[in-house]
Every structure is written in structure tokens, then in C-alpha cells.
Structure of Formamidopyrimidine-DNA glycosylase:
Amino acid sequence: MPELPEVETVRRGLAPAMEGARFVAVEVRRPDLRRPFPDDFRGRLEGATVKALRRRAKYLLADLSTGDVLLMHLGMSGSFRVEVGPDAGRAGARLVPGAYYHARSETLAHDHVVFSMSSGARLVFNDPRRFGLMLLVPAAELAEHPLMREVGPEPLDPGFDAARLATALAGKAAPLKAALLDQTVVAGLGNIYVCEALHLAHLSPRRKAGTLVARGGVPTPRLVALVEAVKAVLAEAIEAGGSSLRDHRRTDGTLGLFQHRFRVYDREGEPCATQGCVGQIRRIVQSGRSTFFCPVCQK
């Protein structure tokens, strides 16, 4: 499942083609993805202008001139590609906005939605597993939409700090990794980047989350270090284009690069990357998901 860095990378790739542009034509090639498309999906989009393209947690949000918000989720295998120029729609015409040609390997039979924009770009949503999602939500109702109303703070927002995380973790006996994966605690984090941030902060994924909060709800220095690690890992991943594990692709069709910088994820049995540490990376299963960590330097 794409995490915050992957979705932010896609947002940055789509924004030049979408923001300020109008939906000239919308092609929907099947009745549903994870859910059915909204009634009159095509009619409600065509003619509308994208005022802004935002990200909230793992969702893309296109604010429309009609007062609706186009809410999109990539699911497990969904990806967008941007096609521009006179050959848009033909093989070989796929571009990242501003620049270079990149071949894609996705089967065209899985191109389920096509947005033709007044910017001249053609945005194609490809989703082999069809776990993606596209909804239209009135802007005034977005905050209380079931997919949005309980989403936690954005970890890269300036207002997200150790004090705010301490409030969410105080008294929690759940393992630290499980607490960080809870989208009501912090938005957008997933298995990969939680493993990476915990290693960078030298914190065990198995320790009780509440142990990072002192009496009176005061964050401990280790919680301060964790927040700094989360921000650093996410920023590095966004800069690198996200992770390319399994199905994630950037809008230009290329793979992300962050997987080549993993400190612990999918490195079972390899030496710990922490300078001076003699540990080896271990893999355990927590809540049905693989956790990678160093038992020597993560406490």
C-alpha cells in the first residue's frame, strides 16, 4: 500500500498538469474500482477546474471549481501517468511534467480512468488490482467524511511535534510500532517508514508506546528523537521519489529510489547500519505484518 511519500510524490507529479486546468473529457472504462464510481462522475467533472491538488494522509484531494472535492486513493497497485504533447495517448508519449520520456510496463488493459485536461495533459489511472478509489465529496462535507474525520495530524506539518504525539501516546500499552501505524495517531505512516524511523531513533518496535511519555503528558527526549526521525525519513523518501516496492510508480513511470536506502526494511540478517553497532537486522511479525529492527541498538 502506498504510504505518505509515495502519495506526495504522485501529487507533485500531477500538480503541474492539473492545477488551474479544466477537465475537458473524462473517460471511465469500468463501473467501479474498490467502490462504484459516483453517480454522474463524468458529468460532474467535465468542465470543472482544479483549483488545487492536495494530499491528506494517503489520499489525493483535488479541489474543484464546482465546490466538490475529487478524493483519490491509489490502493495497492494504482498509479497515474502523465501523457503530454501531440502524441498523448500513444505509446512512447508518456512524460513527467517538464521533461523526460520514460517507458512504462503496465498493461494498457488496466487503464481504467483517463482525464483529458485543458493543460494539454492526459492523466491515465492504471490499477491492475482495482483497489484504488475515486469519490466526489462536497467540500463543506469533506472534514466529516468517514474516510477523513478521524485522520490524525500530518507528520510533516510544522505543528506536529513531540508534545502533540505525547498526547496521543499517553497511557497506551500497545507496541510502539502498532501505535504509529494507527492513522488516528499520525496520518500517512505505514509499515516501511515506521520501521525506518524507529531504527533511526533507536527505539524498539515492541516497547510500550506510553513509555515515551513522562508524567503529566510531557514527551521524553526519546519521543522528541522519534518525531525528528519520522520527519527526516519521510523527507528523505519524498526527495528520492518514494519506495518502488511492488507496484508503486511515479507519474513518469519510473521507480522510486528510496528502497536502495533502507536501513532495516527487508534487510533481515544483514549488519545494522548504525555506526558502531554489531547487531544484525531481525524480522518479526506484528499484527500480521513484517517488522524489521536491530535488537542491539533499538531499545
